[in-house]
Fold this sequence. Notes:
CooT (chains A, B)
Amino acid sequence: MCEANAYLIRGNSEELFMEAVDIVENEGGFLKMRNIFGEQKRIKGVIRRMALVEHKILIEETE
Amino acid sequence: MCEANAYLIRGNSEELFMEAVDIVENEGGFLKMRNIFGEQKRIKGVIRRMALVEHKILIEETE
Lengths: 63, 63
Protein backbone atom coordinates (compact mmCIF):
# COMPACT_ATOMS: atom_id res chain seq x y z
CA MET A 1 0.00 0.00 0.00
CA CYS A 2 1.13 3.50 -0.73
CA GLU A 3 -0.26 5.55 2.08
CA ALA A 4 2.00 8.06 3.86
CA ASN A 5 2.47 9.41 7.36
CA ALA A 6 1.58 13.06 7.88
CA TYR A 7 3.76 15.15 10.21
CA LEU A 8 3.38 18.69 11.50
CA ILE A 9 6.46 20.88 11.28
CA ARG A 10 7.33 22.04 14.79
CA GLY A 11 10.37 24.25 14.57
CA ASN A 12 13.20 21.89 13.73
CA SER A 13 11.29 18.72 14.54
CA GLU A 14 8.28 16.87 13.21
CA GLU A 15 5.25 15.66 15.14
CA LEU A 16 3.23 12.75 13.81
CA PHE A 17 -0.27 13.97 12.93
CA MET A 18 -1.77 10.94 11.20
CA GLU A 19 -0.51 7.55 10.12
CA ALA A 20 -1.27 5.75 6.88
CA VAL A 21 -2.96 8.68 5.13
CA ASP A 22 -4.66 7.82 1.86
CA ILE A 23 -6.83 10.83 0.93
CA VAL A 24 -5.98 14.51 1.43
CA GLU A 25 -8.43 17.21 0.39
CA ASN A 26 -7.55 20.88 0.46
CA GLU A 27 -10.61 23.04 1.01
CA GLY A 28 -10.56 26.67 2.00
CA GLY A 29 -7.26 26.49 3.84
CA PHE A 30 -8.13 23.25 5.63
CA LEU A 31 -6.57 19.88 4.93
CA LYS A 32 -9.02 17.03 5.39
CA MET A 33 -7.30 13.66 5.67
CA ARG A 34 -8.54 10.12 5.69
CA ASN A 35 -6.34 7.16 6.39
CA ILE A 36 -6.58 3.53 5.35
CA PHE A 37 -8.28 2.69 8.65
CA GLY A 38 -11.14 5.09 7.84
CA GLU A 39 -10.10 7.66 10.46
CA GLN A 40 -10.54 11.31 9.52
CA LYS A 41 -8.80 14.45 10.67
CA ARG A 42 -8.87 18.09 9.66
CA ILE A 43 -6.28 20.78 10.19
CA LYS A 44 -5.78 24.34 9.04
CA GLY A 45 -2.52 24.22 7.15
CA VAL A 46 -0.64 23.67 3.94
CA ILE A 47 1.35 20.77 2.59
CA ARG A 48 4.92 22.03 2.67
CA ARG A 49 6.72 18.96 1.33
CA MET A 50 6.01 15.38 0.36
CA ALA A 51 8.36 12.49 -0.21
CA LEU A 52 6.13 9.71 -1.45
CA VAL A 53 8.72 6.99 -1.84
CA GLU A 54 9.60 7.74 1.81
CA HIS A 55 5.84 7.75 2.71
CA LYS A 56 6.07 11.20 4.23
CA ILE A 57 3.94 14.35 4.13
CA LEU A 58 5.05 17.50 5.97
CA ILE A 59 2.36 19.96 6.98
CA GLU A 60 2.77 23.52 8.11
CA GLU A 61 -0.04 24.56 10.39
CA THR A 62 -1.51 28.00 9.62
CA GLU A 63 -3.60 30.30 11.80
CA MET B 1 7.32 2.06 -5.33
CA CYS B 2 4.88 4.61 -4.05
CA GLU B 3 5.22 7.49 -6.41
CA ALA B 4 2.07 9.12 -7.82
CA ASN B 5 0.96 10.73 -11.06
CA ALA B 6 0.25 14.46 -10.92
CA TYR B 7 -2.66 15.83 -12.94
CA LEU B 8 -3.81 19.37 -13.62
CA ILE B 9 -7.51 20.04 -13.14
CA ARG B 10 -8.90 21.32 -16.45
CA GLY B 11 -12.59 22.05 -15.96
CA ASN B 12 -14.16 18.62 -15.65
CA SER B 13 -11.16 16.69 -16.89
CA GLU B 14 -7.60 16.03 -15.78
CA GLU B 15 -4.42 16.52 -17.77
CA LEU B 16 -1.34 14.50 -16.89
CA PHE B 17 1.37 16.89 -15.68
CA MET B 18 4.05 14.50 -14.43
CA GLU B 19 4.33 10.76 -13.99
CA ALA B 20 5.88 8.91 -11.07
CA VAL B 21 6.28 11.93 -8.79
CA ASP B 22 8.31 11.30 -5.66
CA ILE B 23 9.08 14.72 -4.15
CA VAL B 24 6.78 17.76 -4.06
CA GLU B 25 7.95 21.01 -2.48
CA ASN B 26 5.65 23.95 -1.97
CA GLU B 27 7.53 27.23 -2.04
CA GLY B 28 5.97 30.64 -2.39
CA GLY B 29 2.97 29.44 -4.34
CA PHE B 30 5.02 27.19 -6.63
CA LEU B 31 5.00 23.41 -6.57
CA LYS B 32 8.39 21.91 -7.42
CA MET B 33 8.20 18.25 -8.32
CA ARG B 34 10.76 15.59 -8.91
CA ASN B 35 9.94 12.15 -10.18
CA ILE B 36 11.67 8.82 -9.74
CA PHE B 37 13.46 9.32 -13.09
CA GLY B 38 15.11 12.50 -11.79
CA GLU B 39 13.02 14.83 -13.95
CA GLN B 40 11.97 18.12 -12.40
CA LYS B 41 9.03 20.42 -13.07
CA ARG B 42 7.65 23.53 -11.46
CA ILE B 43 4.18 24.99 -11.61
CA LYS B 44 2.32 27.77 -9.88
CA GLY B 45 -0.54 26.03 -8.17
CA VAL B 46 -1.93 24.21 -5.18
CA ILE B 47 -2.50 20.57 -4.40
CA ARG B 48 -6.28 20.25 -4.41
CA ARG B 49 -6.61 16.53 -3.67
CA MET B 50 -4.46 13.44 -3.29
CA ALA B 51 -5.41 9.78 -3.30
CA LEU B 52 -2.18 8.01 -2.47
CA VAL B 53 -3.42 4.44 -2.65
CA GLU B 54 -4.66 5.38 -6.14
CA HIS B 55 -1.28 7.07 -6.89
CA LYS B 56 -2.95 10.33 -7.81
CA ILE B 57 -2.29 14.02 -7.10
CA LEU B 58 -4.66 16.69 -8.42
CA ILE B 59 -3.25 20.17 -8.91
CA GLU B 60 -5.12 23.39 -9.43
CA GLU B 61 -3.06 25.86 -11.39
CA THR B 62 -3.10 29.40 -10.00
CA GLU B 63 -2.23 32.70 -11.69
